[in-house]
Amino acid sequence: MKSKPDLLIDIERTATRILDSWKDKNSVIFCEEARKYTFNVIVKQVLGLTPEEPRTKEILQDFLTFMRGLISVPIYIPGTPYARAVQARIRISSTVKSIIEERRGNSCKKSSDFLEILLYVDTLSEDEKVSFVLDSLLGGYETTSLLMSMVVFFLDQSPNAAQQLEHEHRRIRSLKKNDEFLNWDDYKAMEFTHSVINEALRYGNVVKFVHRKAIKDVKFRDYIIPAGWKVLPVFSAVHLDPSLHGNALHFNPWRWQTEDQTCKKFTPFGGGSRCCPGFELAKVEVAFFLHHLVQNYRWKVEDSEQPIAYPYVEFQKGLKLSVQRLSS
Ligand code: HEM
After folding, report:
1. Which residue, judged by its Cα, is nearest atom 39 of ligand 1?
2. Per UniProt, where does heme bind (predicted)?
3. Domain that holds residue 241
4. Is residue 221 part of a domain?
């Protein structure tokens, strides 16, 4: 993909641009802001498009329509969410195809995004390449933006955690020049931030389960899962099991200062060979956004909104926050 410093600078710039746009606002619909942020990051890394380009807005609009149709009755009747989703998928796919064609025709202008690498892979057909791009865009923005919403929601309920987070980020900033970009070492030094993110992943369960199929008989404890059977590992059942995570129904980021994050009782990004390839990108995005959020704003969740699982976790009103900018 990109060299890390470029990627990190892109992410941080995208975060500050979003937060600057709140300057004169008293409230924001946070889920929309988070989607804008994670979408702008992923669309830049995958397709090389900047937020200002009209195509970025068009693709985002189509993705939102596509997402709305994901959980609907799959019968094609024009005007239904399903039919609109099918149309949106066709439009996104043709936009991606036209970007691929433009790039081919402009082979002297090199970019450093994911598409550039994909263009020269001979083993994939054109449709497979488009599908690869769509999966990366889709996998890369909705989950991360939901994680951000969860973090912001839990921090609103946990003033001690919000305060400790602010201290951590002020300390990191105090060691840098005013407008110097964050780097990988800064990210690694954000210890409490990592605990907050882990806890939001455990307690918030952005992805609750995955689909698996046994390709041969599998022995699991006293059971045999026959070849061909579908299996649904439910992560949320494990993440909320009080015998594995003490006081499991409480947001407690401090638990991660002692708990092991690499064990089988914590698998927010799946596991094995299909483990999420974007897990570190997602965490960097959240950490960098928080870096600027906690130092520049106070926020409060309005209307006592709570997340619900429907079946994907969501905030039905989009998580409205009242925001107050701190004077620098
Ligand atoms: C909070 C953020 C995220 C969460 C919770 C998450 C979670 C997951 C989970 C649970 C899986 C399935 C793993 C399995 O089947 O074992 C997955 C797969 C995947 N994720 Fe993520 N993900 C996140 C962010 C991202 C990002 C930022 C990207 C893109 C860069 C991404 C791209 C993908 C792709 C392409 C797959 C399919 C991998 C495969 O089937 O081989 N995800 N993710």
Report:
1. 274
2. 276
3. 4-48+111-325
4. yes
Residue 285 Cα: closest atom of ligand 1 = 27
Task: Count the helix, strand and coil residues of the chain and give each as a percent rounded to the nearest 5.
Answer: 55, 10, 35
CA-closest candidate to residue 197, choices 301, 246, 268 = 268
Per the domain annotation, does 71 fall within a domain? no
Q: Is residue 96 part of a domain?
A: no
Number of domains comprising the chain: 1
pLDDT tens per residue, range 185-198: 999 999 999 999 99
Minimum CA distance residue for ligand 1 atom 37:
276
Q: What is the CATH number of the domain that holds 42?
A: 1.10.630.10
Tens digit of pLDDT for each residue in 47-102? 888 888 898 888 889 988 988 887 778 889 999 999 999 999 899 889 888 888 88
CA gap 38, 42 in Å, rounded: 6
Q: Is the pLDDT of residue 3 over 60?
A: no
In 3D space, the residue among 63, 70, 69 whose CA is nearest the CA of residue 43 turns out to be 63
- The reply to whether ligand 1 has any atom less than 6 angstroms from the CB of 136 is yes
Q: Tell me how far CA of residue 37 lies from CA of 32, 107, 115, 203, 208, in angstroms.
A: 9, 29, 20, 23, 23
Pocket test for ligand 1, best of 269, 274, 286, 289 (most atoms within 8 A of CB): 269
Q: What is the pLDDT of residues 20-31, one digit of tens each?
A: 999 999 999 999
Mean pLDDT of the chain: 90
Residue with tokens 């995955």: 210
For residue 201, give the ligand 1 atom closest to its CA: 5
Task: Determine the 3-state secondary structure of 182 from DSSP.
Answer: coil
Is residue 124 pLDDT above 60, yes or no?
Answer: yes
